Amino acid sequence: QLQLVESGGGLVQPGGSLRLSCAASGFTFNNYTIAWFRQVPGKEREGVACISSSGYNTIYPDSVKGRFTISRDNARNTAYLQMNSLKLEDIAIYYCAARFGRCTADVGAYQYDSWGQGTQVTVSS
Q1: How far apart (Å, rounded) are the C-alpha atoms in residues 23 and 15?
Q2: Which of 18, 39, 77, 114 could form a disulfide with 98 if both were Cys (CB 3.0 to 4.6 A apart)?
Q3: Cβ atoms of 85 and 61 closer than 8 Å
């Protein structure tokens, strides 16, 4: 079981940027697909990025495409989410998650086995 810890959330003005980190503990981090999800009260947990175990494949929903970039450094057991041009609609708790398998757009949160505790992203003028 992989242990995940998010960091890097905070308060940013609209149009600003944040970089989230997801630190993993385990011997086989490079075998896991890593995804970032976000959730606001009353709404479904939404996937915002996924990266394959090798880092070769990434996917994004239209809501963040062109603004968010997921990456990973397998040597450091860490994944990242670079968020640019942040909007009020991006306010949420952001979670990283891990599972075996490929990155596909139709894989929901329930299919991920390991989760961090989340980090709050607040966008405010």
Answers
A1: 26
A2: 114
A3: no
> What are the structure tokens assigned to 101, written together?
């398998």
H or E stretch covering 48: strand 46-51
Distance, CA of 79 to CA of 118 (rounded, Å) = 14
pLDDT in tens, 64-103: 999 999 999 999 999 999 999 999 999 999 999 999 989 9
- Cα-trace Rg, the chain: 13
Joined together, the tokens standing for residue 115 give: 């989760």
Determine what percent of the chain falls in helix, strand and coil, rounding each to the nearest 5. 10, 45, 45
Amino acid at 59: I
Q: What is the dihedral of CA 37, 39, 45, 50, to 10 degrees?
A: -10
Is the per-residue pLDDT at 27 higher than 70?
no
